[in-house]
Amino acid sequence: MFSHDSIWGAIDALAERHQLSPSGLARRAGLDPTSFNKSKRQSVDGRERWPSTESIAKVLDATGSTITQFMDFLRPDGRDGHFPEGAFPPQAGSIPLLGFAQAGAGGFFDDGGFPAGQGWDVVDFPAAPGTKAGVYALEIQGDSMLPLYRDGDVLIVEPGAQIRRGDRVVVKTKEGEVMAKILVRQTVRSIELLSLNPEHANRAFDVSDVEWIARIIWASQ
């Protein structure tokens, strides 16, 4: 059953998942920045104020979310700031799988690098992901990551995980390029990456040119 608190809680959870405040979420959706402030959720006489369906539709469009994903946030266990349970097949031990070549296309990831949209396959995860919501797999295609990773190897990626120097990471640029590298250095302005294949040049990007970066936590070889 919908309630005033659950609807506003879902909006708060959606904002948190996209690393936004409620006012930041409203701003992204083209609404008055104060639209979702806690002070606006009740009138001066104590009556409950509900967000309009138009506001919710604008928020979903601005974040690339579906109504199903929003509904998942209405459940008590859906407010963890990660990809909502139920958006992919819920079999125990399975996670979303995407080919590396597809990963550069639009519509497969949200702003934080979490899986989104349609077109994902499913693969069994050899170690139970536990509470790591949003973990997914990328299948290597081609030889650009030799000798460390070969064609057909599967990388398990965890968006939102803490990243340190020397970690193996997947990076997606705002131009749609996706690559697996080793993090050499990361500052507030730039990211330096070491190529896995010595025949390929190392890379460096301005942070503003990077859409997301996620840590590789496991590889099937």
TrEMBL record:
<keyword id="KW-0804">Transcription</keyword>
<dbReference type="GO" id="GO:0003677">
    <property type="term" value="F:DNA binding"/>
</dbReference>
<protein>
    <submittedName>
        <fullName>DNA-binding protein</fullName>
    </submittedName>
</protein>
<keyword id="KW-0805">Transcription regulation</keyword>
<dbReference type="InterPro" id="IPR036286">
    <property type="entry name" value="LexA/Signal_pep-like_sf"/>
</dbReference>
<dbReference type="InterPro" id="IPR039418">
    <property type="entry name" value="LexA-like"/>
</dbReference>
<keyword id="KW-0238">DNA-binding</keyword>
<dbReference type="Pfam" id="PF00717">
    <property type="entry name" value="Peptidase_S24"/>
</dbReference>
<feature type="region of interest" description="Disordered">
    <location>
        <begin position="25"/>
        <end position="49"/>
    </location>
</feature>
<dbReference type="InterPro" id="IPR015927">
    <property type="entry name" value="Peptidase_S24_S26A/B/C"/>
</dbReference>
<feature type="domain" description="Peptidase S24/S26A/S26B/S26C">
    <location>
        <begin position="96"/>
        <end position="217"/>
    </location>
</feature>
